[in-house]
Amino acid sequence: MPIETVNITTTTLSLDYYLVAFDANGNERLEPTGFMSEKLANILATQPITDVFFISHGWMGDIPAAKEQYTKWITAMGGRAADIQKIKELRQSQNQEFRPLLIGLHWPSKPWGNEDLNAQPKTTSYDTSGSELNNLIDEYAQDVADTEVARDALRTIFAASIEYANPPETLPPQVNQAYEVLIKEASLNEDAEDGASLNLNPENIYQSLIAQEPETQEISFGIGDAADNKILDVLGYVSYWKMKARAREIGSTSGFKLLTQLQKAAAKTVRFHLVGHSFGCIVVSSIVNGKDNNQLIRPVDSLVLIQGALSLWSYCPDIPRRKNLPGCFSSILKDRKVTGPIVTTRSIHDSSVTKLYPAASLLGRFQGQDINFAETNSEFPEYGSIGTFGIQGINESISLKMYPCDKPYNFQAGKIYNLESSEFIRNFKDGKDDDAHNSIDKPEVAHAVWAAAFGS
After folding, report:
1. What is 59-126 written as a DSSP string?
2. Which domains, and CATH codes, for the chain?
3. Does the pTM of the predicted model rise above 0.70?
């Protein structure tokens, strides 16, 4: 898996990308030819790279899903011939020949997904007795909640998944109760700082999974190729808290270390552009922010948060109704850790982030509070996502509609732009709107990402 090639027919520009994979503990996966980070550092030290695009996928992404998503994103980027020509001319005016380096960061965000670096599918069978069941419980507990109470609940859920060959109309009472216990255990370590806790309703999730067509289960959010047991599929959504915490931990440690290594190897003229989607916005924000007051070698040059599944108050210096509590990424602005523009997208058609992740039919309820997500509200809710509202709680943000590809942006360094993107981030088919959380491989989205690089 050293280099992934994306064939772009609309341009002669090479947009191959390098996939750097971490395990669940944040350790870089060893390639047959060595560590990818060392190869990338060598490229930056020896080749005239001008721009590094550092990209992170979101929740429910295993190796095949990450590859599929990065291929779609990079194809959209490579299809923007006018934007590519513009950045070539811009770099020429700076006495450089535009030469990009694209890096896709993979972190295991899909519980029990395919983490084979060669992306071969795996087949899993379930047995409710003996060591096999205990091994499965161990594996699942690590991705949800590793407590004895959680393990007992998992045992009940596995037993039901075997008992019911066909999905029952509703969750059996003992399974519903087991999921309620599991959700409570999974949320015990939820960090209140970013205000994104959920009260998940197992029955609501289950009903939406039964109603969901396989083709609507998209990469990086839906269950995808594991969607063959609806009772077990609910477990994927219960991993919300675990994967959110993993995104932040891997970003602030392993991702931060990787970017620091690359910045050390690169010439000072090399620009670094970070792009995240969904929980990937937590990853890239954590990379920029660091941990325990760590600092990158230098600030990054642009930051794009696409349909971000993190709190709208994450960058705020003083979260409303939180007694002077700053957002977990507020120091990014305070310490100017991004010199260029910060760009966010939001869409009313993204039902995943407007309801902060459970299934499409789940009500937007946060710690018992009903949330009205209407943009016309004069006051933003305590709990909501950047993918719904943009970055809020700061004075200098600028709200714009996402532009069509033939209209140029004029993003300025140091500014925050919240792009209302519902016209383009939309998944309209068969006369209705489906969840558009993953409908981001659009030319207009790529146009905005290129524009952020121009503004750095």
Report:
1. SS--HHHHHHHHHHHHHHHHT-HHHHHHHHHHHHHTT----EEEEEEE---STT----TT--------
2. 17-113+249-360+371-454 (3.40.50), 130-243 (no CATH)
3. yes
